[in-house]
Design brief:
This protein is α+β, with helices and mostly antiparallel strands and 473 residues long. The protein has 14 helices and 21 strands. Strand 1, helix 1 and strand 2 form a beta-alpha-beta unit. Helix 3 crosses helix 4. Belongs to the GARS family.
Length: 473
């Protein structure tokens, strides 16, 4: 078991607890359902309440009336940070949210500044609130750029990312120039980031208010709607992942956040998505909350009971997190008008049945779904209905299991990607060649003052672990 420095260990085994889930838009219902199936009591509050999870979970209107009832309060999104801080100071056990971590994710400029301050290798980026100034900048500084919304942006526009393909930036320039009037109405603050080629990969872990809980997670997101990374950006259409002891990728990114998260008393999940290549690891953005569909796929790979896990970290206790060996993938199942909000089209799919050729629902996780008279039906407004997971000793085994489960599902005009995890052979070769998956000593050895030891310069990535071992002697 991992030590956490305060003598606390997991003592919640076989006990039953009361969980209160608080959400803006029904994101964490599947986790709540899993915890309920483990025998715990669960209530959930959804601010933008609709019919999601009807027949699965008990919903409440005023969540604040139940804070004394709950043994654990779970916030599943950003925007609850100040409330989470207040409740923790009042002695409540809370998973999710802090003012600091909210700002890391929601304010790209602040997040990048923190990465740089803590020693991460950040890509050059420039923040704008004026499209004419941005166009002038691109013209004067030709290059390949990525355009990203920043600040407060509606969910409809938060996924409006432009990935430049021209080395002189002409494509991004023309798109912004021809669309600046409409963009300035919906995306008032934005960032231009230098583009770099490589493998997109995330390094993440759960944090218990004092330390990271290992193992850590390495994950590969697929955000475009169609296979081959074509089509519009979505929240995510699927993810492949595996659990690992801390490695170079984690140590050089998310692992550097430990002291700041401890100061913030943050409890929950944190991820840094990166682009990596032979020249370095470039962190792009924070996720300081459960990931979606990451949390669904994590249920495929975690053997430990989720109720006990959430209770333990909410009480700043250590936890021996048991996970499967091998790989997991998750495939998101949607229907029209996803990823857009067209009320007329959406209503065509309202209350449609979700049927299964065989009775098993193993590996099937809830999106916007309800149960009516024992039948699963579509619900809500997102057209994001299910996440289907699989696991295996190899990535191909995990793919085979997940897609066989997808074939068991019947939803009219359902849409899903067929290539989740398919690039693993190429991605893994590159990551291992660059040594980013090499394991390191964790927690890091105590830093020794320079006057006591002279460190030899590092000549290659492969010396990383060796140097850390020497420092600990």
């Amino acid at each position: 078991m991992n030590g956490n420095g305060n003598g606390h260990t997991n003592n919640s085994e076989n006990k039953k607890y009361k969980f209160l889930f608080v959400s803006w838009e029904a994101l964490s219902g599947d986790l709540a359902w899993q915890i309920q199936k483990e025998g715990h009591e669960v209530k959930c509050h959804i601010r933008d309440v609709s019919d999601e999870y009807d027949g699965f979970l008990e919903k409440v209107d005023d969540w604040k009336k139940y804070t004394d009832w709950a043994d654990v309060i779970v916030f599943d999104d950003t925007g609850f940070g100040a409330e989470a801080d207040r409740l923790r100071k009042a002695g409540k056990a809370v998973v999710g949210g802090s003012a600091y971590t909210d700002k890391l994710e929601m304010d790209r400029e602040f997040g990048q500044a923190e990465m740089k301050r803590l020693g991460m290798l950040t890509l050059p980026s420039w923040d704008f609130d004026n499209y004419e100034l941005a166009l002038t900048f691109i013209k004067q500084n030709p290059g390949r750029y990525v355009y990203k919304p920043s600040g407060k942006v509606s969910s409809d526009w938060s996924g409006f990312l432009l990935l430049g393909k021209e080395d002189d930036g002409r494509d991004v320039y023309e798109i912004l120039d021809y669309n600046k009037k409409i963009l300035s109405k919906h995306i008032k603050q934005f960032q231009l980031q230098k583009h770099v080629a490589g493998v997109e990969v995330g390094a993440s872990a759960f944090f218990n208010g004092e330390k990271f809980i290992t193992p850590v997670l390495v994950a590969f997101e697929h955000k475009r709607l169609f296979p081959g990374e074509l089509g519009p950006m979505t929240g995510e259409m699927g993810t492949s992942m595996f659990w690992s002891e801390p490695n170079i990728l984690f140590a050089e990114t998310t692992g550097k956040m430990e002291e700041e998260l401890r100061k913030a008393k943050y409890v929950g999940y944190i991820d840094i998505n990166c682009i990596v290549n032979g020249r370095g690891i470039y962190p792009l953005e924070f996720t300081c909350r459960f990931g979606y569909p990451t949390i669904n796929i994590q249920q495929e790979g975690v053997i430990s009971p989720w109720g006990e896990f959430m209770y333990s970290i909410a009480h700043y206790q250590d936890f021996s997190l048991k996970t499967k060996k091998g790989f997991q993938i998750g495939v998101v199942i949607v229907a029209p008008p996803f990823p857009y909000d067209d009320p007329q089209e959406r209503d065509l799919y309202k209350d449609i049945s979700i049927l299964f050729r065989k009775s098993s629902v193993e590996g099937v996780h809830l999106g916007d779904v309800k149960m009516v008279d024992g039948v699963w039906r579509t619900a809500g407004r997102s057209s994001y209905y299910l996440v289907v997971t699989g696991s295996g000793a190899t990535m191909e085994d995990a793919r085979r299991q997940a897609y066989s489960r997808v074939e068991n599902i019947m939803i009219i005009n359902m849409i899903y990607r067929t290539d989740i995890g398919a690039t693993w052979p190429q991605d893994s070769d590159r990551l291992r060649t660059w040594s980013y998956l090499d394991q390191v000593a964790w927690p890091p050895p105590l830093k020794i003052k320079p006057e006591h030891v002279q460190l030899a310069p590092l000549n290659s990535q492969s010396q990383y672990q060796e140097q850390k071992t020497q420092n600990s002697l």
